[in-house]
Amino acid sequence: MSKSESHLDVRTALKQGLAQLREAHVPSFTLAAELLLLHVLGRDRTWLYAHPEEQVSTTDADIFFKLIARRVEGEPTQHLTGKQEFWGLEFEVTPDVLIPRPETEHVIEVALDRLALRELRAGRKQTLTGEGLQIADIGTGSGCIAIALAKELPAANFIATDISPAALAVAKRNATRHAVADRIDFCEASLLVLHSPLATRHSPLSFDLIASNPPYIGRREAPSLPREVRDHEPHSALFGGEEGYELYADLITQAANHLKPGGILVLELGHNSLPAVQPLLEASAWTNVGVTNDLAGIPRVLAAEKA
Predict the structure, then answer these.
(1) For residues 162 and 182, what is the distance between their CA atoms, to the nearest angstrom?
(2) Which of 14, 32, 9 is nearest to 228 (CA)?
(3) Residue 25: what are its φ and ψ, rounded to 5°?
(4) Is the pLDDT of residue 199 over 90?
(5) Tens digits of residue pLDDT in 212-250
(6) Which pLDDT score, from 0 to 100, does residue 193 have?
(7) Are 264 and 115 spatial neighbours (Cβ–Cβ below 8 Å)?
(8) Of 3, 29, 127, 220, whose Cβ has the fewest other Cβ atoms within 10 Å?
(9) How far apart are CA 65 and CA 174, in angstroms?
(10) Neighbouring-strand partners of residue 303
(11) How far is CA 208 from CA 136, 211, 265, 305, in A?
(12) Sheet holding 259-268, edge to edge
């Protein structure tokens, strides 16, 4: 059956799309085919498998197979659908931002755990709303860290920085979508170097929590990256220098200057960054340093408190 022919049902369309992706050795080809078909049809997965004989219009089939062809050429599924789920929330993604990864959810978990532990140590009640808390998300990208934390801490206020104005535009739209835009100040900045009224409005600029998923891939690793990542995600959000861990020293120094005493720093790590980054927290400015592994057993989150 020709893929442009009418009388194509859901099962056949999915099967044909899946076969094309598998033949091209596209990773997670089943999931990619499903997500692209769901996107075109405006349906959810439950509907997809409950209605395998439902007819797909010629127009929808044409759009679907064009998206399949683009995925075969290496475009990420998330760029084709314009969205990615993170922390149970749907985020708009574009080629201007890093696609949120599941392992970054560990940053949210560690941040919330550390804040709760601090409340416990202080003898305060455990209903953490974030009241009075000032939180910074450095290199916000799509806004996923700041927005997820803002949903969990409905009384906290945030500053989210990024060096890319295009990324900030996406993050602002995501904050509006999730009804937290009134509590997040988005600021164009390199790390925590703020050139904006924020520095005076929040004077002195000090935080209870600083979280960051900084660029941490080494440029020398670029040839070994999947083409979906190397060719389609923003290099400013991927590469942290030749080795990959160059940005952490400045980030940790700035965090030490901008965290309140007892304030918490939570950093996502690259797969091999820990040996280079952990010694930076051995200075007297830091205490309670901890490492959290991701589900693959890779050291993924480094956290510490300002002494």
Answers:
(1) 18
(2) 32
(3) 60, 40
(4) no
(5) 999 999 899 999 999 999 999 999 899 988 888 889 999
(6) 67
(7) yes
(8) 127
(9) 29
(10) 266, 290
(11) 8, 10, 9, 10
(12) 193-194, 184-190, 157-162, 134-138, 207-212, 259-268, 299-306, 286-293
pLDDT band at 121 (very low <50, low <70, confident <90, very high): confident
Question: In DSSP terms, which residues pair with 81 in a beta bridge?
Answer: none
Instruction: Give 56-107 pLDDT, tens digit per residue.
Output: 999 999 999 999 999 999 999 999 999 999 999 999 999 999 999 999 999 9
**The residue to which tokens 């683009």 are assigned:** 70
- Collapsing DSSP to helix, strand or coil, 300 comes out as strand
The secondary structure of 149-207, three-state, reads HHHHCCCCEEEEEECCHHHHHHHHHHHHHCCCHHHEEEEEEECCEECCCHHHHCCCCCE
Q: How many CB atoms lie within 10 A of CB 208?
A: 20
Q: What angle in degrees, to the nearest 10, is found between the helix axes of 165-177 and 144-152?
A: 30
Helix (H) or strand (E) holding 81: helix 77-81
- Cis geometry, peptide bond prior to residue 76 (ω within 30 degrees of 0): no
Taking residues 12-16, report their average pLDDT: 97
Q: How do residues 262-282 score in pLDDT, each as one tens digit?
A: 999 999 999 889 999 999 999
* Angle made by CA atoms 166, 170, 175, in degrees to the nearest 5: 140
Is residue 169 within 8 Å of residue 147, measured between CB atoms? no
- Taking a C-beta distance cutoff of 8 angstroms, is the pair 144, 86 a contact? yes
Tokens 């314009």, residue?
A: 82
**Mean pLDDT, to the nearest integer, of 121-129?**
79
| DSSP three-state, residue 259 | strand
Question: Environment class of residue 73 by beta-carbon count within 10 Å: exposed (0-12), middle (13-18) or buried (19+)?
Answer: exposed
